[in-house]
Structure formats: structure tokens, C-alpha cells
Amino acid sequence: MNPGARKKEILSVLVRDGSVQVIDLARLLDVSKVTIRSDLDELETKGLLVRTHGGAVTAEASGSSRFISQTINEFTVQKMAIAKLASTFIKSGQSIIIDNGSTTLHIAQFIADLPITVTTSSLLVMQELMHAEKVDLLMAGGILRRPSMGLMGNFSKEFYRQIHADWCFLGAAGYSAKHGVYCTNLIEADTKQTMIQSASKVCLLVDSSKMEHLSLAKVCDWPAIHYLITDAISDEIRTIIESHGVKILVVDES
């Protein structure tokens, strides 16, 4: 079996079982454990799995991934209002991080005339700001994750570790009053955590469809978030989140 076919079979087993062990794959594919470890390492760099001691687990839940080309056309009015309010936090001369996502993307159109520094992993944010002459635009490299059209992984993490930002504008697949903030991919969650650590303040941008929605990968607990901007939130959930020191702003869509 050639290397390409072998990696395809590894991913097939991973999708079926949710996890794999080096010793089992070596026996199944009739190759050495060293070869399997090398295959798993390569697949991890592509964001397709997460290595564990003795094996690997799936990077995201089956069927959880949705492409930004779909989500960008959902709750558009709400997302625009959320992004517009978030953009009012940004002052001339500041440095900001804009996360991947269909809500955070909208910030770009409101800041194109500001003399600021923008760091992002989002190819869509890059496209929006690449001709904005007043904006110093920095791109964090990494492995392209096509559902979000964003870059992630160790290259991105190392880049974010070298910078400091006044703000990080964070996206998410869901959040829970009890459990915190979530996305669909473990490697992307790891990258988001480094973004958070590189910023003085973190603002989470989520429309109300994300409320009390859990995904595979936990990004952070509420103490890591300073502001949450949304279009609607229940009183009970608001009270719990605010008890962690998060300031919640609800946009007026009119």
C-alpha cells in the first residue's frame, strides 16, 4: 500500500472509531510503528487529527464542520450589527487580532480607514483589508482549514506568541453559560487560545444561534473573555456569564 492510500485508510478508521492506536494501525496496515507515527504526525500538521500518547483522535466531530460560504449568509443583519459595535472599541494606533469566522469578518469593513495594525489568520479578512492603505496587515501562517478559510496550527501559534495586541476579536461555534466558549476543531481551538494569550482584552462576537450550543473543542472559560457582543441573550444565561466578570452588550438591529 502506497503512503497516500495508507493515510487515507488511517483517516477512514479514525472517522469510524473516533480514535486510533499506533500498534493497531501497524498491525492492520502491515507496516512498522515508526511508519504509522510518521503518518500520524503528518496528518496532524494538516489539521486532520490530534496526536495522543500512543495514537490519535479526530480533530473535529463528524458532520460538525460547516463552510463559511454558508454561514456568512446566515443571520447577516445580526452579524453586521455585532461587528459594527465591536469596531467602535478600536482606536487609532492600536493593534488588533481578528479571528476566523463569519461574524468577525464583518469588522474589517468598518476599520479600513483607521491607522491600526491588524493581525489575522483569516484569508477573507486579508482580502477585505489588503488594499486598505492605512492598515498595517500581518498574516499569521499555518495550515489552511477550508471550512473557515483560515490558517491554524503550530505556525500560527508561534506567530501569535511573538506579538502583542490591544484587542482580540474572537469568533466561536457556540458557547455555554456553564462550560465556556467552543469551536468545532481541536487544533483551531489551540490556535485561538494562543490568540487570547497575546491580547490585553478579548471580545467574543457571537449571534444568538450560538447560545447554549456546545461543539467538540473547548476554547476557553469565561474569565478569559472581557466582552461578549450578541444580538439576544436570556436573562438567566446573562446573569451567569456576567458573574465571571464579562461585560455583555446586546446590539440594536434596527
From TrEMBL:
Record keywords, A-Z: Transcription, Transcription regulation
Q: Pfam families given for it?
A: DeoRC, HTH_DeoR
Q: Which residues form the HTH deoR-type domain?
A: 3-58
SMART domains listed in its UniProt record = DeoRC, HTH_DEOR
User: Membrane-spanning regions, if any?
Assistant: none
- Under the GO molecular function aspect, what terms does this record hold? DNA-binding transcription factor activity
Q: What is this protein called?
A: Transcriptional regulator, DeoR family
